[in-house]
Amino acid sequence: MDVVVQRGQYKGTPYVCLIKQQNQGKRDSLIAVRSFLHYFNKRGESPSTIIKPELFDWLATFFIRNAQFSKVDCLVGMDADTVLDRECVYELVQEQRLPNTLGVAGYVVVDWKDKPWGLWRLFQNAEYTVTQCVRRLHQGRVTKKVSVLPGACQILKINDETCCDLVLLDKFGAKPQITDGLYKQIMFSASEDGNHVCCVMTTFSKARTRQCLRARAYTDVPVSWSVYLSQRRRWSLGATGNDWLLVSGPNVLWFERTLSFVNTFTWFLTPFVFAAYCTFFYVIIAHASLVILYLAAILLIPIIYYFFIPFGLLKLSYKEKWQYFAGLMLYLVLGPPCRFIVLCYALWNMDQFGWGKTRQVINEDGAKANVDNVSQHGADSQYSEEDRRQVATTPPNMSSVNVATRDIAGEEKRLGA
């Protein structure tokens, strides 16, 4: 697969862009960038890397001469459909400076664009907020073991714990064998950011990751069933697989292991939870009694917590609070059936490893066009054990890489094959 490397300046800031010719997910990109930065810091030791020498030298020269970096301490990650708040990076860096912190998860909210009261965005805004202010909040403040650093907003420390070959290549980048089951196939293609964190946590027991609710990022969300189900399928399968990795992996706190097991078990009980949810509301309406009201009062405890989130945990404007409460009403009513539909869709399509039509690009004539992403599991796209150990190719899934460079004027130079 060809890779074009473009360099230039944007508003006075030097940049370098690695452009892949295929979309095989971002696992290969994460490995390439993080491995390069790790060995860039160790370049004085003449390390053997998975990056081709020509490309490594070119990138290192750019960092030293153009960007004037002699060392990279941290890497800020974001998605292409995400906009960071003005103070986001500052808050991430401040949180990153706490002792033994290897990574920090930012707070991802919905980008409202021109539809601040759209039903899709209201529902997902409440969904995002509740998800990040329950288990992830507990992980960040109590156990210091946040198991997901979202790709939309994160900061990762570049060191031997996060970017060593043991984590990046042997665990995170290990390709599934043809005889492996669906679990390993799914883990190789879904929830890459969470999987990397889980690999670090199960390798190094003292690794700490945190959450920073002050670091806000605004992300575009699906506004159609097809894209929503495609995205949630990957999230659902990936998150459940990562939870199971924490259940069975070493170096995990017993409390975190227990919560991961409960999450995994609850995922399988989603149909029962949905049926019980519908039956309970039917009983409240049709057969109201004092006992039923007592049970309803117990179920109100998490709902009361949801209502206090925008007052005690988050700094929201008056309008943002109303948007959250409107979305929360939708979430409480439509959340269980949506989770049931996502589970059914995920199980039915769990052997599909493509990314679907997840974004749009603008053609030269100004028309929008969907971009079909290439399936990750191809016969020639796998990364052998021998390949990972030689100084030959860039990230996994690439048996060979042709690299060309071009500056902002468009001139290209081929570095090697």
From TrEMBL:
Q: Where is the composition biased (Polar residues)?
A: 391-403
Origin organism is Passalora fulva (Tomato leaf mold)
- Asked if the record carries the keyword Glycosyltransferase, the reply is yes
| Gene Ontology terms: cellular component | cell septum; plasma membrane
Question: What InterPro entries does the database record attribute to this sequence?
Answer: Chitin_synth, Nucleotide-diphossugar_trans
Q: What is its main location?
A: membrane
Molecular function, one GO term: chitin synthase activity
Instruction: Quote the protein name from its UniProt record.
Output: chitin synthase
Highest classification ranks of the organism: Eukaryota, Fungi, Dikarya, Ascomycota, Pezizomycotina
Topology with respect to the bilayer: Multi-pass membrane protein
Q: Where is the composition biased (Basic and acidic residues)?
A: 408-417
UniProt subcellular location: Cell membrane
